[in-house]
Amino acid sequence: MNAKKIYLLLAMLVGVAECPFFNFGFSVSEVHAEDKKNMFNPVNYSVTSLAIAPDARSGALGDIGAATEADANSQYWNPAKYPFNIARAGVSASYTPWLRKLVNDINLANLAGFYRIGDYSSLSASLRFFSLGEVFLDDTDDAMTINPYEMAVDVAYSRMLSERFSMAVAMRFIYSDITYDYTAETKAGKAFAADIAMYRNGYFMMGGRECSFAWGLNINNIGSKISYGGSDNSEFIPTNLRLGANMTIPFNQYNRLSIAADANKLLVPTYPKQRDGEQDNDYLDRVQREYYDVSPISGIFKSFHDAPNGFKEEMQEIQWSAGLEYNYNDRFMIRGGYHHEHANKGNRKYVTAGAGFKMSVFAIDAAYVFSIAQSNPLDQTMRFTLSFDLDGMKDLFGNRRRR
């Protein structure tokens, strides 16, 4: 992979949300039919790898996880779910070979685990590493090979406040080393962030069956901006509001169906657009005041009312997903989902499918993405997750010793 490709790849880490140029979902005639400046207006942020769903189960459901049944990967979606986990402890490892249609050395690796403390609280942690592969720079005086990457490590504490309701807080350290030229005045970016999450799960009767309904909320990556040097301005990280619901309907002792949906809103200010007749210097001054000089907390509140086209555009910034999961005897699962992002905000529209197989000790999940938007680089992306139930491993090895 050469140096010129690195900007292309960074722009497409989470689809085409960062740069309108790479949105191929419209024909040439449609582009000319409308004003480009009003047509495309994605929300810009740095450390885009934080917005990539890490695990195969949620990936197969259309990137859903705010209120689904708790598992080892709840750290990313909603850590408040951990106290409701049946297992005492668990760990999972996920791997996503990213953008395989373009390059073969970009991937996301994620390791997550939890431990329930007593019956009401838990500790959890995760580590994610996003590699941009090997980049050979041959267009400078000093040829060099670099390995840009991003990583994040976090810990969370969650506690049940009642039999049905729990809350969690998480702390995260973010490190982004995407410097493309070590001779330039740039450096790796660092940031700290926190998550606030809540989860509620209840039961009700429907047609003689005891069904469950849960909802969850997670505001993640509330934290500092990130700077790469070479400029006085810092960039926003992807602070995000996720709200979801999940209903599980059992058909009999062995079969059940779960229906889930999530909605996401980036809590990042919209980058100002140049107004008609506005001078370039006046526009740059306004960008400095209304974007770069805005603090992270002020940016969260500003993100709800700063879209140039008003409330209609604010609603376009909401991404939503829906998914189904069929579960047979807690051993075999079939999943499907759909993810939607408005065309003006990135045009990520894709269908997902996957399956899972679970034993007493481990579980393996796989997911696949079928893109609807034409030439979307998310197409044909595969995720794999391997999870271990530490209680099951303890029982297994304990039985062997007793024999």
Helix content: 10-25%
Strand portion, in percent?
A: 35-45%
**Main β sheet profile:** 14 strands, antiparallel, barrel
Please state how the strands of the largest beta sheet are arranged side by side.
Answer: 1-2-3-6-7-8-9-10-11-12-13-14-15-16
Question: Treating each run of at least 4 consecutive H or I residues as one helix, how many helices?
Answer: 9
Spans where pLDDT lies below 50 across 5 or more residues:
1-8, 11-34
How do the SSEs run, as a string of H and E? HHHHHEEEEEEEEEEEHHHEEEEEH
Distance between the termini: 55 Å
Describe the protein.
The protein is α+β, with helices and mostly antiparallel strands and about 400 residues long. The protein contains nine helices and 16 strands. The strands form two sheets. It has a 14-stranded antiparallel barrel with strand order 1-2-3-6-7-8-9-10-11-12-13-14-15-16. The longest helix is centred in the C-terminal third of the chain and has 13 residues, at about 280-290. The radius of gyration is 22 Å and the shape is globular. The model is unreliable at about 1-10 and about 10-35 (pLDDT under 50).
Give me the secondary-structure topology.
Elements: H1 5-11, H2 28-33, H3 36-39, H4 56-60, H5 74-77, E1 89-97, E2 107-117, E3 121-131, E4 135-137, E5 144-146, E6 149-160, E7 165-177, E8 189-206, E9 209-223, E10 240-250, E11 255-266, H6 280-292, H7 296-302, H8 311-316, E12 318-328, E13 332-340, E14 350-358, E15 362-371, E16 382-389, H9 390-402
Antiparallel strand pairs: 1-2, 1-16, 2-3, 3-6, 4-5, 6-7, 7-8, 8-9, 9-10, 10-11, 11-12, 12-13, 13-14, 14-15, 15-16
